[in-house]
Amino acid sequence: MAKSSSRPLAKPKVRARIRAWCVEGKSSREIVELLKAELRISVTPQAVQGYIRRHRAEIDALVGRVVEAVEEVTIKDKSERIRRLAGLYDRMDEIVTTRGLLAREPKVIGSGRDAYEVEVERFDAALVRELRGVLGDVADELGDRPKTPLIDARTLNISLDALAEIKRRALDAGE
């Protein structure tokens, strides 16, 4: 059985819950159901709407603070990721500055008692791949690289006849 009170929405605990649900984006009907289920309070949607209307400035201020906090965390996380990526790039760039793009590897020539070891230099493709990967990650973090291709083959709707015609015209034009 639901509790009955002359002013159930005036209680601090109830007010705090309503404000929290408003910040979460709940509708007045959802808040009525939550009040009934969680706090065993029966009120009408109109009563909740009236409460929200009377406390709109307070609720909007709470929403603003939540949005600011989320943005701050997002920015801090993004800045931290970029800072770490920059540090990683700097360390790899230091390797390139010290030894260039060539990696030295030992190689055994011959076998048995006649075997000897020499040092062979080779292009360090793995290091270059990692450097490019870090630069790509930074570009993604900064939004400098589009996430979706400019032309998506799945949505490009062209018939084979039209494609053949385009190719024929290009050949006729000497392209």
Can you summarize the main beta sheet?
Answer: 2 strands, antiparallel
Q: Tell me the series of helices and strands, N- to C-terminal.
A: HHHHEEHH
Tally of DSSP helical segments:
6
Portion of residues in beta strands equals 5-15%
Q: Supply the helix-strand structural class.
A: mainly alpha
Give the overall pLDDT as a whole number: 85
What's the alpha carbon Rg, rounded to whole Å?
Answer: 33 Å
Biggest sheet strand order reads 1-2
Helix content: 55-70%
Low-confidence stretches: none
Topology:
Layout: H1 12-23, H2 28-39, H3 45-54, H4 56-99, E1 102-109, E2 116-123, H5 125-142, H6 160-172
Antiparallel strand pairs: 1-2
Helix pairs in contact: 1-2, 1-4, 2-3, 4-5
List keywords for this structure.
175 residues, elongated, 62% helix, single chain, mainly alpha
Architecture overview:
- The chain has six helices and two strands; from the N terminus they run ααααββαα.
- The chain has 175 residues and is mostly helical.
- Helix 1 (12-23) crosses helix 2 (28-39).
- The model has no long low-confidence stretch (mean pLDDT 85).
- Strand 1 and strand 2 (116-123) form a beta hairpin.
- The chain is elongated.
- Among the domains are: 8-54; 73-142, no CATH class.
- It starts with 11 loop residues before the first helix and ends with a helix.
- It is 62% helix and 9% strand.
- The chain has a two-stranded antiparallel sheet.
Summarize it.
With 175 residues, this protein is mainly alpha-helical.
